[in-house]
Amino acid sequence: MWRNFAASVLLLTSLAGCSRKDDFPAWPNFAMTIPADVPELMVVSDKDGNQHQINGREAYTTGYRGGWKRCVRDYEKGLLDLAVEKPEVPLVQEYGIVIRGWESGFLTCWRAIRKARQ
To answer: Cis omega (within 30 of 0) on the bond before 28?
Structure first.
């Protein structure tokens, strides 16, 4: 049981780091809605085939925040193309639910920046 808990904590902190409010971008204004089909509890398999129960909503949120932060960082470095129809989301190696959140966070941030700059 403790091993599963530790694995979940590592998962949730590995992608975005131990976030503090002061290290989250102030602009654009952060917005997030967790889709209704994201479960509270879910079972995921690691690369060795071991199964772990995690909080799917927290995992999605961690991915979303990480994708949002990456989008802002790319924008600040001049790497975010606002002229394309849809940007290519940077890849991450994580559980599917985290990747889903990452992609959604990155794209939502990209749309917010694009709208603000038009």
So the answer is: yes
| pTM of the predicted structure, to 2 decimals | 0.78
Structure tokens at 25: 């971008």
CB atoms within 10 A of CB 91: 9
- pLDDT for position 27: 78
Token pair 């780091």 in the structure block, residue: 17
Q: By C-alpha distance, which of 40, 63, 44, 66 is closest to 53? A: 44
What are the two backbone dihedrals, phi and then psi, of residue 53, each rounded to the nearest 5 degrees? -95, 130
Closest CA to 72 of 34, 108, 21, 32: 108
